[in-house]
Design goal:
There is one protein chain. By secondary structure, the chain is α+β, with helices and mostly antiparallel strands. It has one domain: Bifunctional nuclease domain (Roll). The chain contains five helices and eight strands, in the order E-E-E-H-H-E-E-E-H-E-H-E-H. Strand 4 and strand 5 form a beta hairpin. Helix 1 runs parallel beside helix 3 and helix 2 packs across helix 3.
Length: 165
């Protein structure tokens, strides 16, 4: 996979599908205008939200535990890639660096994103998934947190298709 085949993205926010009340994580292409929504589970949305809001829990949550485990076994998360979309379900790979070389872990994108946020690792989406999925371009660049919050509250199910993590 070459660098031209993947696009770096950032987590721009979480919202809820107004019809099903299912959480959606919004990924935005770095340096671009495309936005990719991924429907995720409630627990994964909570894990992402806790890290985005920098909430410290009294004990490690599952994603914190995995991040700590990687460190203990002398591995480092180097990136996450959302690399497949089959039957309306996204797939991701977590890439770790260890003394033995590069390791790959199959993952749900929601878990991979929650881990990447904790490890401060970059998140990528393959060009094929971006093209295949119901990504869309933003008319204008939304800069601050309040503008994103407003945009997230206005989106409708018709704005994009339904895909699961």
């Amino acid at each position: 996979m070459s660098e031209n085949d993947i696009q770096e993205v950032v987590v721009k926010g979480l919202t809820f599908d107004p019809v099903t009340n299912v959480p959606i994580v919004i990924l935005k292409e770095t340096g671009g205008k495309r936005v990719l929504p991924i429907w995720i589970g409630v627990f994964e949305a909570n894990a992402i939200a806790l890290e985005m809001e920098r909430v410290e829990t009294p004990r490690p949550m599952t994603h914190d535990l995995f991040n700590n485990f990687f460190s203990v076994v002398d591995s480092r998360m180097v990136r996450v890639v959302v690399d497949n979309l089959m039957d309306n379900t996204f797939y991701a790979t977590i890439y770790l660096e260890s003394k033995g070389g590069e390791l790959k872990l199959d993952s749900r994108p929601s878990d991979a994103i929650a881990l990447a946020l904790r490890a401060k690792s970059p998140i990528f989406v393959t060009e094929e998934v971006m093209s295949q999925a119901q990504s869309f371009e933003m008319d204008k660049d939304i800069g601050d947190k309040e503008d994103w919050k407003e945009w997230l509250e206005r989106i409708t199910p018709e704005d994009f298709g339904r895909y699961r993590s």
